[in-house]
Amino acid sequence: MDFIRYAEQSAALLNAPLDDVEALRDHLASRPWLQEQCTDRDCMLLRKHQRELRPVFEASAAGDVAGVVDGLNELMARHPVSPRISDHDGHLHVHVASRSASVAELLVGESLLGLMTLVCDLGPTRLGVCSAAPCRQVYVDTSPNQSRRYCSDRCSSRANVAAYRARQKAVTPA
Questions:
Q1: For residue 144, with 0-12 CB atoms within 10 Å meaning exposed, 13-18 middle and 19 or more buried, which class applies?
Q2: Which domains does the chain have, with CATH numbers?
Q3: Phi, psi (degrees; rounded to nearest 5) at 135
Q4: Where does the Zinc finger CGNR domain lie (predicted)?
Q5: Which whole-number Å values give the CA distances from 57 to 25, 47, 161, 165, in the listed order?
Q6: What is the dihedral of CA 55, 57, 61, 64, to 10 degrees?
Q7: Mean pLDDT by 10 residues, the chain (174 residues)
Q8: Does residue 85 contact residue 92 with C-beta atoms inside 8 Å?
């Protein structure tokens, strides 16, 4: 089980527009075995999870360690994870839920277990909210020096170009 991948998938889940089952299926494009199981109830539960999880990323971005830890602990209490050892692919690995779990239960479980492990291994300030206005996407910072500020290269480039233009405008006489 790759906990960093689960944490990054948690950020992707938080950023995903989950308006309907088709949007959830689009989000799960790399996991076709889950796409056919998606329901309206999964979408509703995942939208609720998005609302509950965002404050954890915001607390991390603000350096609020207690907010991150308390927020994740509260979510873990509300959504207990029952990891299981599986050997269905010919090797032993961990699944976050039983085969009978819904898509939402599986994704929430992966999300919380990934974030909990990441926070314990790398620290509680490794989650962030994009610094490029007006973007509000979230990200997981796994950089060695904890320097990530943007959700994507696109936002980073846009912010850098805007800063460059502002510097040029300040230097150029009107």
A1: exposed
A2: 3-125 (1.10.3300.10)
A3: -60, 140
A4: 126-168
A5: 24, 16, 26, 30
A6: 60
A7: 86 97 97 94 98 98 97 95 81 78 93 95 95 94 91 87 82 72
A8: yes
